[in-house]
Structure formats: structure tokens, C-alpha cells
Write a structure and sequence with these properties.
232 residues, alpha+beta, 5-stranded mixed beta sheet, 9 helices, 41% helix, elongated
Length: 232
């Protein structure tokens, strides 16, 4: 008689309990998150099945797929049984899921409010562990001409040079611009640097006849609009 302490391979499970067979026979919604990830990674190790390994990974990220979606290749590769190829498979699958969610709400082509700005930029700024500064270039009819990444930084900040920003705006013949950056910390409160930069950009824009429509700070859970708060 086998001891319960010994881990069984997935092949020794009842067929209906194996993730691939379960998906084929019962449909994708019948599988747990761990079982779906187990299908992605394909195999576990000598000491644990792919499902057990997946459960361990999920437990580390508090069973939160959003947190798992922010993990890097190097972070996932620290788990015993996860090499670079398996880590890439997990990251790629979660990114596809994220993009699918975004396509259900088409990004607006014309800006009418701060929510439109959020919808235009969220695919670029969700799930980042570093800060990025972007601008949206806008025509006189409020149509989005384009989006430009101005700078990348670390967890606590990035540098946004007004000269670069307005150089890009002039090149694209934009009538207005929107400033956007993310706070990976999740804190939506603007810093003193954010407020100072916004005022500086608005003043420079008046001289160049390029209007700053808004400055939006984004996190994974929402956004802060300088325009909505009367801070422009």
C-alpha cells in the first residue's frame, strides 16, 4: 500500500482529475487557477506535480492573478521547478488575458473626459513595477493623434523633461497634450514634484500655444486627474 506522504505524478491521477483531460472533458471553467497554470508549465519536479507547484506559486502571490501578472522572469525562475521557459509561458499567458480584457473596451479616439484618457493609456501602464511618463498628442478637434513614451524610471520616479515633451508635440503639430504617468506604489496622491511639473508644463504651453488638457496619475486600481480636481 502506498504511503500518503509520497507525491503522485499527474499521470497516476484519475483521468478526470488531470488538468488537460479535465479541460477537455469538463470545459475550461471547471479548472482552478492552479490547474490552468499547471497546463502552461507542463510538468513539475521530482518532488511535486505541476499542480502542486502552481499552487505554491499562487500562494506566494496571495492567490492574486494581478500580482502574479506583475512578476518578472527572474522572480518566477526562483521557484524550484520553474526555469526561464516556464516563466515566460506564464507571463505570456497572463499578458494575453490582460489584453483580451482591454479589447472588450475599445480605447476612445476622441478625448472628452479623464476617463477617456484612462481608457487610452491603461494598456500601457497597468502591471508595471517601474514608473513611466507618457503624453497623448491631441488635435484641435480633440482627436488622439498619437501617444509617446517620454521616459522610464524606477519604483519611485522618472524624469520628464519639458523640452523633450514640447519638442515631440511640435513635431506632431499637436494643438494640445495630456500628461500621464503611473505610480507603481498604488498611491494616487500627486507628489510635490508632480504638482511643480504640471504648473511648469502649463506655463510653457501658454507660451507655445499648446494647451495642457490634463495630467493623469494612474495606478492598477484607478487614476487621479489634475483637471478634475481643478489643479491645472
Amino acid at each position: 500500500m502506498e504511503e500518503y506522504g509520497n507525491n503522485l505524478s499527474i499521470k497516476s491521477w484519475a483521468e478526470e482529475d488531470r488538468p488537460r483531460e479535465k479541460l477537455s472533458g469538463q470545459g475550461r471553467r471547471a479548472l482552478t487557477d492552479a490547474e490552468l497554470i499547471a497546463i502552461l508549465i507542463g510538468s513539475g519536479s521530482r518532488n511535486e506535480t505541476a499542480v502542486e507547484l502552481s499552487k505554491r506559486i499562487l500562494h506566494h502571490y496571495e492567490n492574486d492573478l494581478n500580482k502574479l501578472g506583475k512578476a518578472s522572469i527572474s522572480e518566477l525562475s526562483k521557484f524550484k521547478g520553474i526555469g526561464e521557459a516556464k516563466a515566460i509561458s506564464i507571463i505570456a499567458a497572463l499578458e494575453i488575458g490582460r489584453r483580451r480584457g482591454e479589447t472588450e473596451t475599445k480605447a476612445p479616439e476622441t478625448l472628452t473626459c479623464s476617463r477617456d484618457i484612462y481608457n487610452v493609456m491603461r494598456r500601457h501602464l497597468m502591471d508595471l513595477n517601474h514608473e513611466e511618463f507618457w503624453i497623448i498628442l491631441v488635435s484641435r478637434s480633440s482627436k488622439v493623434i498619437g501617444k509617446e513614451l517620454i521616459s522610464k524610471g524606477g519604483l519611485n520616479g522618472t524624469v520628464a523633461d519639458p523640452r523633450i515633451i514640447y519638442h515631440v508635440a511640435i513635431q506632431h503639430q499637436a494643438s494640445s497634450i495630456v500628461l500621464i504617468h503611473n505610480h507603481p506604489s498604488g498611491n494616487l496622491k500627486p507628489s510635490r514634484e508632480d504638482i511643480f511639473l504640471t504648473k511648469k508644463m502649463v506655463e510653457a504651453g501658454r507660451l507655445l500655444d499648446i494647451n495642457v488638457l490634463d495630467h493623469v496619475i494612474m495606478t492598477d486600481n484607478g487614476y487621479f486627474s489634475f483637471g478634475d480636481e481643478g489643479m491645472l
